[in-house]
Automatic annotation (TrEMBL):
Keywords: ATP-binding, Helicase, Hydrolase, Initiation factor, Nucleotide-binding, Protein biosynthesis, RNA-binding. Residues 231-355 form the Helicase C-terminal domain. Coiled coil: none annotated. It catalyses: ATP + H2O = ADP + phosphate + H(+). Residues 19-47 form the DEAD-box RNA helicase Q domain. It comes from Aceria tosichella (wheat curl mite). This is Eukaryotic initiation factor 4A. Belongs to the DEAD box helicase family. eIF4A subfamily.
Length: 355
């Protein structure tokens, strides 16, 4: 297709690179929020994509997790919204609840000095509470496609003032079967809406969505090499039998709990089994997967973020929603089924140049 090379990688058509936040001509309170959040220098995608987004172009960016893409569209949104108007002006769709909540946190933190209001509409939470928040008026809404469309349908989320529509991890949303809901949501928006699409991979269905929704998009590729594995040391332990992994993990436990570690398994059942086996041997670990109630997942995530829980066992579903500064060790108990997920799993500990 147009603008693609045969490997499914988009060709950039925008070459402007701005290497400092000060040079982006952003609102002063937004700049303060960016620096207060701990950003010093824009990452590769931020240097390339913030400007075309702020200049109101439709933008399609190919970038993995851990590149600073959430802040890229959050900054672009915060620069463009008018906080004196309590209508929703930007809508962000994401594939999982965890990612939606992660995005909400970033928007609120970066928009702290602007008093930007951001609400997360996600399944598994109280519908009435959602409606109440939306009716009070928020500037930015982030959510999973099903719940967002539900809120639009119930007329709790008014779309008339939405000027920016962001699809984050579009490939994941489509592979989870959200295509119809995304189209339904898009149909309720103004024809003039600016569309920003982010995706790690560019399969045909993502390109189809971009053709339907976007006008002359700016295409930006953040190459995989610039991404996530710099500064991350990788080791493997050669165990001859599956049964021996457990003993090896227990031997490593003291090393794990000194800082914080995430252990990935390929299935929910394996997560439960491993957690139980570790508990039986009196090791403290917590576990999280998609079968759990939202409330339970929130509590576990909070304990892990604050450091009161040290070792978290989880599945790939949540690899993308975990952004924990202190994670210094990632263990792949099972090898992930594909390369993408491997990068998602281990590209966490070294986010933004941390070793």
């Amino acid at each position: 297709p147009l603008g693609m090379d045969p490997d499914g990688i988009i060709e950039s058509n925008w070459d402007e690179v701005v290497d400092s936040f000060d040079a982006m001509d952003l609102k002063e309170p937004l700049l303060r929020g960016i620096y207060a959040y701990g950003f010093e220098k824009p990452s590769a995608i931020q240097q390339r994509a913030i400007m075309p987004c702020v200049k109101k172009h439709d933008v399609i960016a190919q970038a993995q997790s851990g590149t600073g893409k959430t802040a890229t569209f959050s900054i672009s949104i915060l620069q463009q919204i008018d906080t004196s108007n309590r209508e929703c002006q930007a809508l962000i769709l994401a594939p999982t609840r965890e990612l939606a909540q992660q995005i909400q946190k970033v928007v609120i933190a970066l928009g702290d000095f602007m008093n930007a209001q951001c609400h997360a509409c996600i399944g598994g939470t109280n519908v009435r509470e959602d409606m109440r928040k939306l009716e009070m008026g928020v500037h930015v809404v982030v959510g999973t496609p099903g719940r967002v469309y539900d809120m639009i349908n119930r007329r709790a989320l008014r779309t008339s003032s939405i000027k920016i529509f962001v699809l984050d991890e579009a490939d994941e949303m489509l592979s989870r079967g959200f295509k119809d809901q995304i189209h339904d949501v898009f149909r309720t928006l103004n024809t003039e809406v600016q569309v920003i699409l982010l995706s790690a991979t560019m399969p045909a269905d993502v390109l189809e969505v971009s053709t339907c929704f976007m006008r002359k998009p700016v295409r930006i590729l953040v190459k995989k090499e610039e991404l996530t594995l710099e500064g991350i040391k990788q080791f493997f332990v050669n165990v001859e039998k599956e049964d021996w992994k457990m003993d090896t993990l227990c031997d490593l436990y003291d090393t794990l709990s000194i800082t914080q570690a995430v252990i990935f398994c390929n299935t929910r059942r394996k997560v439960d089994w491993l957690t139980e086996s570790m508990h039986k041997r009196d090791f403290t670990v917590s576990a999280m997967h998609g079968d759990m109630e939202q409330r339970e997942r929130d509590v576990i995530m909070r304990q892990f973020r604050t450091g009161s829980s040290r070792v978290l066992i989880t599945t790939d579903l949540l690899a993308r929603g975990i952004d924990v500064q202190q994670v210094s060790l990632v263990i792949n108990y099972d090898l992930p089924s594909n390369r993408e997920n491997y990068i998602h799993r281990i590209g966490r500990g070294g986010r933004f140049g941390r070793k």
